[in-house]
Design the sequence.
């Protein structure tokens, strides 16, 4: 979109009117390092979060099962993993938006690596790109070295060209060419349908391209259920049938857990069967579009068709001038509409909702991260587990100047020789029951009691170290200097990890640093 504000606004209008679910965008409007102007269309925008000026992004609206892959994204490449399917047959595909800079090889190395990565894990891939490459194979009128290079790569990689026809996708007074390509894996080629180039003026040199997916596959869309629309009589009958066979007597906690799971499943399944799932529909109106903007659109399109037909330089100049005025009118209309909307907010709840919308960052999604072995996580759960992992690169850290003792059973028989009776005594413990971990700290002298829940991802070792670390921080806040302090724990593994000079745990490293 050549980084234009008006171009972004017009694209949003088309997305809203046509109820487009996914938009693959190159050269979006960027302000302060973030893609802007696409929020009017709704949905979430995905792009490389570390790029200062991203040139590729993906807008997803109303789809469920989207998994960002920021580890595979660059300034010129945006990629997500998307769940598609129909009925009980569901699978995943990779969706990519790419920009090929003119001063690099075609395709860029990042896209080549992505294609090989998807091929290695057998993940179907769909790519929409501004290739800046010319070849008659995809409908252009000439062949250039970048086009030969790209065609050779596509032949060797097995990627297919989904373009249809030879309608120019890039249109200027000097040149009309086909450089915007839709590429896909072989298994997706037959499922990319209705590929076409829009004849509508797009406010920049490239044309919008539309295509759909075959009816055999569908996006898994976000839906909702309205409890008021539930058929409660049928729900009760369905629930009674599902509760048949559930035992009424239990001999152990495990039996209770089994019964509770069956009861919960019966209630949920009965409700879902008798309360239909509905899809959310957004308004097809664009608030800033009015008759004044529409008149400029008609004028620009009329001048464009005239210049295209006559090829007269003066007519092309008239078209360019009208297009610049058209962009200005769009920007002014957006600003005026926004100002009027803000002036109408006179109640606090409305202002609070507006503040929430403005401060929410839709790009903050849990996506793929790189693993120590060079691969990437493949699901949100795997990403979360890796982020919560305590492992770090082995680090040499001197042992703290602490007196670490591991008394024997005989030593504990004479407790007066083991515990300093005149000092300040603390006890720490970490444990895990089922899939729930937690830690506790108790100050015998200060009568301090602390407890912490760590959820299902923490280990017993992490809970023990966290308890010691928290105890040390509490001592620093509450205990005067030059006092004898003893911290008692039942974990020899935790004490040996703190005493060791080689550290592999982030928590242990923090604990050793704080103990200094």
Sequence:
């Amino acid at each position: 979109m050549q980084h234009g504000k008006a171009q972004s606004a017009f694209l949003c209008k088309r997305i809203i009117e046509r109820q487009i679910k996914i938009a693959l965008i190159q050269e979006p409007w960027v302000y302060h390092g973030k893609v802007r102007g696409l929020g009017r269309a709704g949905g979430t925008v995905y792009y490389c979060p570390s790029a200062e000026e991203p040139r590729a992004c993906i807008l997803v609206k109303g789809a469920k099962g989207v998994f960002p892959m920021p580890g595979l994204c660059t300034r010129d490449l945006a990629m997500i993993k998307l769940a598609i399917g129909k009925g009980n047959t569901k699978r995943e595909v990779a969706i990519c938006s790419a920009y090929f800079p003119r001063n690099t090889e075609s395709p860029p190395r990042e896209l080549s690596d992505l294609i090989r990565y998807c091929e290695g894990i057998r993940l179907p891939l769909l790519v929409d790109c501004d290739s800046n490459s010319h070849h008659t194979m995809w409908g252009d009128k000439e062949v250039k070295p970048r086009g030969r290079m790209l065609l050779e790569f596509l032949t060797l990689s097995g990627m297919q060209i989904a373009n249809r026809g030879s309608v120019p996708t890039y249109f200027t007074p000097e040149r009309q060419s086909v450089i915007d390509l839709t590429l896909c894996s072989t298994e997706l080629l037959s499922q990319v349908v209705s590929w076409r180039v829009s004849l509508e003026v797009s406010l920049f040199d490239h044309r919008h391209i539309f295509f759909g997916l075959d009816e055999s596959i569908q996006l898994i869309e976000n839906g909702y259920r309205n409890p008021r629309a539930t058929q409660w009589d049928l729900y009760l009958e369905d629930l009674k049938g599902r509760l048949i066979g559930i035992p009424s007597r239990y001999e152990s906690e495990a039996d209770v857990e089994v019964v509770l799971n069956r009861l919960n499943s019966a209630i949920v399944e009965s409700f879902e069967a008798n309360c239909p799932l509905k899809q959310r529909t957004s308004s097809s109106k664009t608030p800033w579009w009015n008759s004044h903007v529409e008149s400029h659109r008609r004028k620009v399109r009329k001048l464009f068709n005239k210049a295209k037909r006559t090829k007269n330089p003066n007519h092309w100049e008239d078209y360019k001038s009208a297009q610049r005025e058209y962009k200005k009118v769009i920007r002014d209309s957006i600003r005026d509409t926004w100002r009027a909307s803000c002036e109408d907010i006179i109640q606090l709840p409305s202002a609070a909702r507006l503040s929430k919308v403005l401060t929410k960052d839709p790009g903050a999604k849990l996506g793929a991260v790189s693993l120590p072995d060079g691969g990437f996580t493949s699901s949100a759960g795997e990403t979360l587990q890796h982020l919560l992992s305590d492992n770090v690169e082995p680090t040499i850290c001197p042992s703290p100047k602490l007196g670490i003792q591991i008394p024997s059973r005989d030593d504990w028989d004479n407790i007066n020789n083991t515990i300093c009776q005149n000092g300040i005594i603390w006890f720490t413990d970490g444990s895990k029951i089922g899939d729930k971990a937690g830690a506790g700290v108790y100050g015998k002298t200060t009568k301090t009691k602390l407890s912490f829940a760590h959820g299902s991802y923490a280990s017993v070792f992490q809970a023990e170290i966290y308890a010691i670390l928290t105890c040390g921080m509490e001592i620093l806040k509450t205990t005067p200097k030059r006092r004898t302090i003893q911290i008692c724990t039942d974990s020899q593994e935790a004490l040996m990890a703190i005493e060791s000079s080689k550290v592999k745990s982030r928590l242990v490293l923090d604990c050793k640093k704080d103990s200094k």
